[in-house]
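USER:
Working in pairs, take the chain set out below, taking as long as you need, and write a paragraph about the fold.
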Amino acid sequence: MTSKSTAVRPKSHLGHSMKPRQLTMMGLGSAIGAGLFLGSGAGIQAAGPAVLISYLVAGTLIILVMWALGEMAAANPTSGAFSVYAERALGKTAGATVGWLWWLQLVVVIAAEALGAAGLLFSVWPVTPVWVLALIFMVVFTAINLTGVKNFGEFEFWFAILKVAAIVAFLAVGAALLLGLVPEVASPGLANITTDFAPAGLGGIATALFVVIFAFGGTEIVAVAAAETEDPEHSVGRAIRTVLWRILVFYIGSVFVIAAVLPVSSEGLASPFAGVLDAARIPGAGTAITLVAVVALLSALNANLYGASRMVYSLAERGEAPRFLARLSGASVPMVAVGVSVAFGFFATVLELLFPDRILPALFQLVGSTCLVVWGTALVSQLILRRRADRDSAELPLRMKGFPGLTNFGLVLLGVIFAVGFSAESSRGQLLSTFVLVACLAAACWLGARLTKSRHTPK
């Protein structure tokens, strides 16, 4: 982290035309997607109403992580974001490892969003197969990401506006249903929550926690987009504050309504928003919210494809990925990086064709705990870089309040989450596989750097 006088944009040819309002809505767009519209139902099935504890824990952690990222992004707006900050704080291998890990996480999420949107659309329009719909979505949003950041940002802005409005309407209907204000429909009250709050105990909460973490994953894209935003020193802090409180209200409010209305055994949890509205007996509302959920997932796909392409572009610029991935189009878009990032999504549609209804659950399981590694690295990087800046009496555009106490609290909370995860058999395997993946990536990045160095060392 450097002083404000050196808080300049990296020397690249990416555009800088994204507006602050677009940055804010992109943060919402990347976080309000499959994790909320589909994952919330899976979380309730795993933990019952106690999933609210999982959301509060994960929500607290993401607030601390985003405050830390906001401080670093305002000082050094770069498309590599936390990957660059990790490199400056912990070395090149750490920076490259977290960059590749986040990229892998996002390309999996891109496929999950496409398949999730296709599955929801098929549930109300069973004409075109899920894999064909997913393929169409991948093609359309690849084209959108290639048109330039200004058009992409505007598209994402209106997508996010639509789903935010829908969630607000859903919360209003849910409140009316719980208060007994819906004509001819008996209020379920809070019986579903109070009768059996944690049917699966601590293990269920731990299992749900990783589903919830997947839901919050992607919020950190705000730090990545700072490099292409007007006046990032001011707009990043404003965007992060706005995104965080809205996400918490939307997530916790929505999950509370769902848990109160739908029992753990309800089939409506497969599409929980539609299930609640069907319980309210509002004609056509279930179909309408399902279509909104499709839009929400596609919006998240759009934002995550942007984030993945910018991260691998940054890795290429720093010599941590093949240089051809940094090639830009006339619209200042890393077109090869976009293509590589979306390729896994196309591959996933083929897998869906071969193994129907198996791919999406597997993708949810794969990416949950990788978020924790990325967030932990961001907190450690901010701890080191902030102390370095304070030692040098550097002026920072944005300072995280409560430092270092809140950063350390975030790290302790992260440690507790890992401990709980390892204590539960359902999540232990996921954590171990994540650690193996991180170790393999770190070894590959270290070896790649050594080979590159030796290749360019004069003999």
